[in-house]
Protein backbone atom coordinates (compact mmCIF):
# COMPACT_ATOMS: atom_id res chain seq x y z
CA UNK A 1 0.00 0.00 0.00
CA UNK A 2 1.30 3.46 -0.93
CA UNK A 3 1.04 6.64 1.09
CA UNK A 4 -0.10 9.91 -0.48
CA UNK A 5 0.66 13.25 1.13
CA UNK A 6 -1.25 16.31 -0.03
CA UNK A 7 -1.83 19.85 1.14
CA UNK A 8 -5.36 21.13 1.68
CA UNK A 9 -6.51 24.44 3.08
CA UNK A 10 -7.72 24.62 6.67
CA UNK A 11 -11.36 24.99 5.68
CA UNK A 12 -11.37 21.88 3.51
CA UNK A 13 -9.57 19.90 6.21
CA UNK A 14 -12.15 20.98 8.78
CA UNK A 15 -14.96 19.93 6.44
CA UNK A 16 -13.32 16.54 5.85
CA UNK A 17 -12.91 15.97 9.59
CA UNK A 18 -16.51 16.95 10.28
CA UNK A 19 -17.86 14.69 7.52
CA UNK A 20 -15.71 11.79 8.68
CA UNK A 21 -16.80 12.26 12.29
CA UNK A 22 -20.44 12.58 11.25
CA UNK A 23 -20.30 9.27 9.41
CA UNK A 24 -18.15 7.53 12.03
CA UNK A 25 -15.29 7.00 9.57
CA UNK A 26 -11.68 8.08 9.30
CA UNK A 27 -10.61 11.04 7.18
CA UNK A 28 -8.41 8.62 5.22
CA UNK A 29 -11.39 6.36 4.46
CA UNK A 30 -13.44 9.34 3.28
CA UNK A 31 -10.64 10.69 1.05
CA UNK A 32 -9.93 7.26 -0.48
CA UNK A 33 -13.64 6.82 -1.27
CA UNK A 34 -13.75 10.28 -2.90
CA UNK A 35 -10.66 9.58 -5.01
CA UNK A 36 -12.03 6.22 -6.17
CA UNK A 37 -15.35 7.87 -7.11
CA UNK A 38 -13.56 10.52 -9.17
CA UNK A 39 -11.36 7.99 -10.95
CA UNK A 40 -14.30 5.66 -11.60
CA UNK A 41 -16.33 8.46 -13.19
CA UNK A 42 -18.12 9.82 -10.15
CA UNK A 43 -21.53 8.92 -8.93
CA UNK A 44 -23.77 6.96 -11.19
CA UNK A 45 -27.11 8.29 -12.30
CA UNK A 46 -29.08 6.26 -9.77
CA UNK A 47 -27.05 7.61 -6.85
CA UNK A 48 -27.52 11.18 -8.03
CA UNK A 49 -31.28 10.66 -8.37
CA UNK A 50 -31.48 9.16 -4.88
CA UNK A 51 -29.58 12.10 -3.38
CA UNK A 52 -31.92 14.52 -5.16
CA UNK A 53 -34.97 12.56 -3.97
CA UNK A 54 -33.70 12.52 -0.37
CA UNK A 55 -33.15 16.28 -0.51
CA UNK A 56 -36.62 16.86 -1.97
CA UNK A 57 -35.09 18.20 -5.19
CA UNK A 58 -35.96 15.46 -7.66
CA UNK A 59 -38.14 16.67 -10.52
CA UNK A 60 -39.75 14.04 -12.71
CA UNK A 61 -41.69 15.48 -15.65
CA UNK A 62 -45.07 13.94 -16.27
CA UNK A 63 -45.40 12.27 -19.67
CA UNK A 64 -48.82 13.18 -21.04
CA UNK A 65 -48.72 11.46 -24.39
CA UNK A 66 -46.64 9.37 -26.75
CA UNK A 67 -42.98 10.31 -27.03
CA UNK A 68 -41.28 10.39 -30.43
CA UNK A 69 -38.29 8.13 -30.93
CA UNK A 70 -34.88 9.62 -31.66
CA UNK A 71 -35.18 8.62 -35.32
CA UNK A 72 -38.60 10.30 -35.58
CA UNK A 73 -37.25 13.54 -34.13
CA UNK A 74 -34.28 13.49 -36.52
CA UNK A 75 -36.59 12.87 -39.48
CA UNK A 76 -38.95 15.67 -38.41
CA UNK A 77 -36.13 18.20 -38.14
CA UNK A 78 -34.21 17.14 -41.23
CA UNK A 79 -33.67 19.97 -43.73
CA UNK A 80 -34.86 22.59 -41.26
CA UNK A 81 -31.64 24.53 -41.70
CA UNK A 82 -29.32 25.99 -39.16
CA UNK A 83 -31.66 28.55 -37.59
CA UNK A 84 -31.27 27.13 -34.09
CA UNK A 85 -27.49 26.88 -34.35
CA UNK A 86 -27.31 30.44 -35.66
CA UNK A 87 -29.54 31.72 -32.87
CA UNK A 88 -27.43 29.96 -30.24
CA UNK A 89 -24.21 31.32 -31.74
CA UNK A 90 -25.66 34.84 -31.73
CA UNK A 91 -26.82 34.54 -28.12
CA UNK A 92 -23.48 33.17 -26.94
CA UNK A 93 -21.46 35.85 -28.72
CA UNK A 94 -23.55 38.55 -27.01
CA UNK A 95 -22.43 37.36 -23.55
Automatic annotation (TrEMBL):
Pfam families: HicB. GO terms for biological process: regulation of DNA-templated transcription. InterPro entries: Arc_rbn_hlx_hlx, Ribbon_hlx_hlx, Uncharacterised_HicB. SUPFAM superfamilies: Ribbon-helix-helix. It comes from the Bacteria. This is HicB-like protein involved in pilus formation.
Amino acid sequence: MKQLITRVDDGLHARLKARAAGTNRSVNDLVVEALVAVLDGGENRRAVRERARAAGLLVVPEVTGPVDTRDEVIAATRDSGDAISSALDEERSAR
